[in-house]
Specification:
Elements (H helix, E strand, L loop, with lengths): L2 H14 L13 H31 L7 E11 L10 E7 L2 E4 L11 E8 L7 E8 L7 E9 L10 E9 L2 E15 L10 E2 L17 E2 L12 H10 L5 H10 L4 H12 L1
Helix pairs in contact: 4-5
Length: 272
């Protein structure tokens, strides 16, 4: 090696290495590893407990004819569009240990529509529905836009169907982020079957965080059955209620398994 090359290498090393190396140089962070391992072990334990919970619910809550809480997320009217483009909102709702999500409304912006019906078995001591609206994002975590907690109306257990707009809380302040339209009823499940859910444990935190922070157990639902709807009956019912959104009428019609008389009675209760 000539003197010129040796001198160049020495200058290069000086630029790369200056001073003493730290004592933990190239050492693994044992504390971080222990913390990560502990977290993974806790998540695995949570998953096992969630599966056990699902099995318990399946065994103790009887057959498929048991009455269910029917929740329809219809639409929302939001105060502000966050981001540079129109938002792609979806709803996440929690009833007791069960978490459900609607489909995303692409470019729904401030007026997203979902018309998503969830059927869930009632759980002892559960009297609230927790609602969150997220903007689905491609290159970052989904953003929480608005949320609210809805008491389950006791009237539904007497056969009354409740349709109402509920105030939303968000960055604009309590009850100032807009409103969400929800239909709640109680009765025998529509023939479409149970909606798939994410089983959650009561002690699991961060319900308000993005999808990426959940450690869920996805429960495979029974094969759905599409109800046979009489289009003529549906049109007649829609004509009877010209001031009501046609999609809302259709949703109630489906929830009543295509029974025209039950649908009319339910809609009459909504307009009272």
């Amino acid at each position: 090696m000539d003197s010129v090359t040796a001198k160049a290498n020495e200058e290069r090393r000086k630029r790369v290495y200056v001073g003493d190396l730290p004592k933990d140089f190239l050492r693994l962070d044992v504390v971080s590893l222990d913390s990560s391992t502990g977290r993974l072990q806790q998540e695995a334990a949570d998953q096992q407990a969630a599966m056990a919970l699902q099995q318990t619910l399946s065994c103790t809550q009887g057959d498929r004819d048991r009455n269910r809480l029917n929740i329809t997320i219809v639409q929302a009217r939001l105060i502000k569009n966050y981001g540079l483009t129109r938002m792609d909102p979806y709803v996440r709702l929690r009833v007791g240990h069960c978490v459900y999500e609607t489909q995303t409304d692409p470019n729904g912006g401030k007026t997203p529509k979902w018309h998503k019906t969830v059927q869930t078995l009632p759980q002892e001591g559960i009297n609230q529905i927790h609602i969150e609206i997220f903007d689905e994002c491609s290159f970052k975590m989904d953003e929480l836009i608005a949320w609210t907690t809805i008491p389950i109306p006791i009237q539904i257990y007497k056969g009354v169907t409740i349709e109402q707009w509920y105030n939303l809380t968000g960055k604009q302040g309590p009850n100032n982020e807009g409103t969400i339209n929800i239909i709640i009823s109680y009765g025998t499940p529509p023939v479409m079957g149970l909606t798939s859910s994410v089983m959650m444990l009561p002690q699991m935190p961060n319900f308000s965080n993005s999808k990426a922070n959940l450690t869920p157990i996805y429960v495979q639902p029974s094969a759905p059955q599409i109800p046979v709807l009489n289009t003529e009956d549906l049109k007649q019912i829609q004509d009877m209620f010209p001031n009501m959104d046609k999609e809302t009428v259709k949703t109630v019609f489906e929830a009543n398994n295509g029974n025209k008389d039950l649908t009319v009675n339910s809609l009459l209760q909504l307009v009272d």
